[in-house]
Design a protein that fits this description.
This protein is α/β, with parallel strands linked by helices. The chain has one domain: Alpha-Beta Complex (Spore Coat Polysaccharide Biosynthesis Protein SpsA, Chain A), CATH 3.90.550. The protein has a 7-stranded mixed sheet. Helix 3 runs antiparallel to helix 4, helix 5 runs antiparallel to helix 6 and helix 6 crosses helix 8.
Length: 387
């Protein structure tokens, strides 16, 4: 018998054995990495779709920021417990007269935090919160830094603060007569309201008057409540900048050199603009077939809720004006605040029409006989005025 000699396989080197041993382990690791990556991608897509469907577009402004995350609404059922005010001077120079108004807010609202912005820190506040490290609105920062009107900056600042922070804003010359929780009657729920405003002027019969028309129907902006991140607030800033840039173009000067009269202030950044933008906002969110007009607020005696905006009757924030059925004093249970006027004295710094003989028609305080007499004396067309 022939023997067959079988040569043994050559011995394998330790390195070869080690390589063979590693192959299954490396394959399992690769599979695990692929699985983890797939799960991560699916999770990211799921979160992305969910995040997009939860955006409240009614809060988003028209401006498209490069930092859109900063425009996400705050999940706010109630108003932030903050009181915001402005001083035109440094804090320690406030006199006792103004301190009394401040104390009226802090003492009647001990659970609310009081905040103040001054001439010394307002620009830094705007830069910090609306610059490249915040909302990323360089146009706002540039405008605020350049415009030469103190009252325009004051108007813009209240809108910017209320957009960013929310809470209650009150001019420094406004005295609290009632605690803030009484601003919203028990018949309404705070979670159903985004904005609380009051009527300042309610004289629609003068809406076409060439001078009084601008101020005849308006909401006051010396005091109001707002939840944070409402698009209506940032729209006010955008609209104010657009109107003032247009005026500067008409004057042929940059906004640092332009001059604004009383009526331009009212219409470009003050209560005229405030009223225009809020009325537009209400109609955008209007759930009824007919449009919202001033007729919905003319002569109201009780608060009315329209498009999540609670509108208070004139006596709430503007009692004692003698016009607009506001009465002659603040001795009424409906008065929530008292505006003492004139802390910044801005009205004396911006010209209004004054006839050399018959003076200002505003001195008539919307008294119809007085206004018509002034119109006749200065030659205003009665067919256009006072209708």
């Amino acid at each position: 018998m022939t023997q067959v000699s079988i040569s043994p396989s050559p011995p394998r080197s330790p390195s070869h054995l080690l390589l063979c041993a590693r192959r299954p382990s490396q394959f399992r690791l690769f599979r695990r990495l692929c699985l983890c990556a797939t799960v991560a991608v699916l999770l990211f897509l799921w979160l992305l779709v969910g995040w997009q469907t939860n955006i409240r577009y009614d809060y988003l402004p028209h401006y498209v920021s490069s930092s859109t995350q900063t425009y996400q609404p705050v999940n706010q059922t109630g108003f932030p417990r903050k009181i915001w005010q402005q001083w035109s001077r440094i804090p320690h120079s406030v006199d006792q007269y103004e301190k009394a108004f401040v104390v009226s807010w802090t003492e009647s609202n001990p659970q609310w935090r009081w905040e103040v912005l001054t001439k010394a820190n307002e620009l830094e506040y705007v830069k910090d919160h609306f610059g490249s490290h915040g909302i990323d609105r360089p146009d706002i920062v540039e405008f605020f830094s350049t415009v030469n009107s103190n009252i325009v900056r004051s108007d813009l600042l209240r809108y910017l603060v209320m957009y960013l922070e929310g809470g209650l804003y009150a001019d420094i010359d406004v005295e609290a007569l009632k605690p803030i929780h009484e601003f919203i009657p028990e018949a309404f729920h705070e979670e159903d309201i985004d904005l609380v405003i009051g009527i300042e002027a309610d004289e629609p019969k003068f809406k076409n008057h060439p001078i009084l028309g601008l101020t005849s129907c308006s909401f006051c902006q010396w005091t109001f409540l707002s939840k944070p991140r409402l698009s209506v607030m940032i729209r006010m800033v955008d609209a104010a900048m657009a109107r003032i840039y247009k005026l500067a173009e008409q004057q042929g000067v940059p906004i640092s050199d332009m001059k604004l009269d009383f009526y331009q202030i009212i219409g470009c950044s003050g209560p005229g603009l405030f009223t225009d933008v809020i009325m537009e906002y209400m109609n955008e969110h209007n759930m009824r077939e007919s449009p919202i007009t001033w007729d919905d607020f003319h002569g109201i005696d009780e608060p009315t809720l329209v498009s999540r905006v609670l509108v208070l009757p004139v006596q709430a924030f503007a009692a004692g004006q003698t016009h607009s059925r506001s009465g002659t004093s603040h001795e009424t249970p409906k008065a929530l605040i008292k505006h003492h006027y004139g802390a910044s004295n801005w009205t004396s710094q911006h010209a209004r029409y004054k006839h050399p003989v018959y003076g200002e028609v505003e001195s008539c305080l919307f008294d119809e006989a007085c206004v018509r007499g002034w119109d006749r004396n200065v030659g205003v067309n009665l067919d256009d005025a006072g209708k």
